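Action item from last week, closing it out:
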Amino acid sequence: MTNSRKRGQETIQARNEADQAICQAEKSLRDLGEKVSASDRGKLEAQMNTLKETMPSEDAGRIRAQIAKLQQAMMVLGQAMYGGATATGPGGSGTASRAVRT
């Protein structure tokens, strides 16, 4: 397989991954509806638009970098919506995971 063909396949795969990430983000926004603040919704939509603008690129690495940014924004949103964030982060010993002793 030639390098250009391999790069082409990597680009196609990255575009497919980007499309899936955008669909997942759009579905999450629809499902959460009014629970998402206008600010958070705007940030997520801006990240989706940036990824959409990156998709025509032939640079699979650049596309994947934008996918990672969108996924990170989705994780932050999910933590905010479901209260999964603690002072020490996921898996830490923040107050959300401590039992109260009397």
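Closing note: The chain has one domain: 3-85.
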